[in-house]
Amino acid sequence: MELSITRPDDWHLHLRDGDLLQAVIPHSASHFGRGIIMPNLKPPIKTTPAAVAYRETILKALSVNSEFTPLMTLYLTDTTSPEEIKLARESGVVYAVKLYPAGATTNSQDGVTDLFGKCLPVLEEMIKQNMPLLVHGEVTDTEVDIFDREKVFIDTVLRPLIERLPQLKVVMEHVTTEDAVRFVESCKEGFIAATVTPQHLVLNRNSIFQGGLQPHNYCLPVLKRETHRRAIVSAVTSGSKRFFLGTDSAPHERWKKECSCGCAGIYNALVALSIYAKVFEEAGALDKLEAFTSFNGPDFYGLPRNTSKIKLIKSPWKVPESLSYASGEIIPMFAGETLEWLPASV
């Protein structure tokens, strides 16, 4: 069995920098035409010149014949200015602004502390520039249970935000709950959308603990109950235009995952398309896979769809146990397991 689909894009991708960038970029570039590149480096990508420089670093890391295009983002802070948003749009390389509530995830300590008090002029300028806001949708209040932080964010931040600024385009990234699915579906189409990761389609919170603590299944937002996973599968395989592919592929060196205080993030770039195909096949919705992977994202961003194709072949292949690179090794999602769908360029 073989599928030929329009080359997908990854609308939520961490490429890091240095040796780690060199190690992981071939996996994304071989499967995806474009990627929305996350700005949470050390230091974060807060300005347009920094985004331009990071883009050049990424392009230099690509193979000579690669056609992969990095779509850059800015890291929203309490001090980001409306003028920076104008510069970003004029640059032609910055496509979105990322909201990390301060402390929500990896390298988010410089994130926003008061969205409504300090960022409204910036958000209003984003509307003028048709610049989407990409949201890590969790509150960081330590009094809120970690499994409830997405729902509380919707109720206390996101819903009030779109009520106040209904023309702002927002992507709720890596949705993990039935609450998020219902919220996105209730909003005006074309203004609010969501990306969905491979892990949140096939794993639930048991996957973190079965057979002992599984650090390579730990990500943020954390995996949720099985009822939430099923709701997300139902949403993405329904054919809705509101959901599209965003892997949130997040590489960390092995020792940073397997330690007393491990990093959050799953490296899935190598296996993402295989997993998405499995989910849609099991739902009897392979005919809807291409829209999710290749159409809904560019349509939301107002960008042309890719013209090249990629094949997905029903041919078992084994995921490597680890991926070595100059500074260490990375453990990919489903390391050592056999997957049924093999991506291959046309």
TrEMBL record:
<dbReference type="GO" id="GO:0009507">
    <property type="term" value="C:chloroplast"/>
</dbReference>
<dbReference type="InterPro" id="IPR032466">
    <property type="entry name" value="Metal_Hydrolase"/>
</dbReference>
<dbReference type="GO" id="GO:0006207">
    <property type="term" value="P:'de novo' pyrimidine nucleobase biosynthetic process"/>
</dbReference>
<keyword id="KW-0378">Hydrolase</keyword>
<comment type="similarity">
    <text>Belongs to the metallo-dependent hydrolases superfamily. DHOase family. Class II DHOase subfamily.</text>
</comment>
<comment type="pathway">
    <text>Pyrimidine metabolism; UMP biosynthesis via de novo pathway; (S)-dihydroorotate from bicarbonate: step 3/3.</text>
</comment>
<protein>
    <recommendedName>
        <fullName>Dihydroorotase, mitochondrial</fullName>
        <ecNumber>3.5.2.3</ecNumber>
    </recommendedName>
</protein>
<dbReference type="Pfam" id="PF01979">
    <property type="entry name" value="Amidohydro_1"/>
</dbReference>
<keyword id="KW-0665">Pyrimidine biosynthesis</keyword>
<dbReference type="GO" id="GO:0044205">
    <property type="term" value="P:'de novo' UMP biosynthetic process"/>
</dbReference>
<keyword id="KW-0479">Metal-binding</keyword>
<dbReference type="GO" id="GO:0046872">
    <property type="term" value="F:metal ion binding"/>
</dbReference>
<feature type="domain" description="Amidohydrolase-related">
    <location>
        <begin position="10"/>
        <end position="320"/>
    </location>
</feature>
<dbReference type="InterPro" id="IPR002195">
    <property type="entry name" value="Dihydroorotase_CS"/>
</dbReference>
<dbReference type="InterPro" id="IPR004721">
    <property type="entry name" value="DHOdimr"/>
</dbReference>
<dbReference type="InterPro" id="IPR006680">
    <property type="entry name" value="Amidohydro-rel"/>
</dbReference>
<keyword id="KW-0862">Zinc</keyword>
<dbReference type="GO" id="GO:0004151">
    <property type="term" value="F:dihydroorotase activity"/>
</dbReference>
